[in-house]
Amino acid sequence: MSTPRVSLLPIEDATQTGAPLGIIELKAQLSVYRVLLHHPQLAQRISDLMDTLTSQSELDARLRELIIMRIGWINNGVYEWTQHWQLAPLFEVDQNELLATRDWTTHDHWSPIDRAALRATDDTMLRGAISSETWSACVDAFPTEREQLELVATIGAWKMMSDLLQSLQVPLEDGVTPWPPDGVSPNKPLVAELQVDDPWTA
Fold it and tell me: How far apart are CA 155 and CA 183, in angstroms?
């Protein structure tokens, strides 16, 4: 594993710093929060955002985990993929579906709602925004404006977290095996494979 670009706080320091901010001990002990808690206010805001999208959202928990795993795979995000492989079963997400997010377009068992969410994730990750065609499918799949906002915010929030984890080279916790269940990774961010015009050289 790479060396983190911002050091990890000792676990005791992280838990003590996080407690008055409402960051529970189990969360504060994770590598990502041991990094973020160097900036307590930032850590608190990120934690609050993630908690809102997890516990106060109408978006189905299974769908959220599929989105997160797809982001982790596209971004070659070992921390995100590995953490949520462990978390997703708590929300009764089938691990075969988690694996299918690697190449979801080749699987035919997805519902129209699943497809809309995964297409929106791919659009955001690979092109920076949801296309008009995909948005039409999202409106059909998520008919209320609250649901639409939660979908976009979920994709955006975990993309932000994935980019943060990658840029800061946040390591897995001690003893955690990367890229479960089979150690297979995308080797490089799939974003790198997308050919787009560079507006600065046009």
Answer: 25
- List, in order, residues 6 or more apart from 88 with CB less than 8 Å away: 65, 69, 95, 98
90, 124, 167, 173 from 191: Cα distances, Å = 29, 10, 15, 26
Helix axes 145-168, 40-55, angle to 10 degrees: 140
The two structure tokens encoding residue 157: 């929030």
pLDDT tens digit string along 81-94? 999 999 999 988 99
**What would the pLDDT profile of 107-130 be if each residue is shown by its tens digit?**
999 999 999 999 999 999 999 999
Tokens of 67: 């989105």
- CA pair distance 173, 187, nearest whole angstrom: 20
- C-alpha 65/C-alpha 69 separation (Å) is 6
- Stretch (H or E) spanning 46: helix 40-55
What is the DSSP annotation of 63-78?
Answer: HHHHHHHHHHHHTT-H
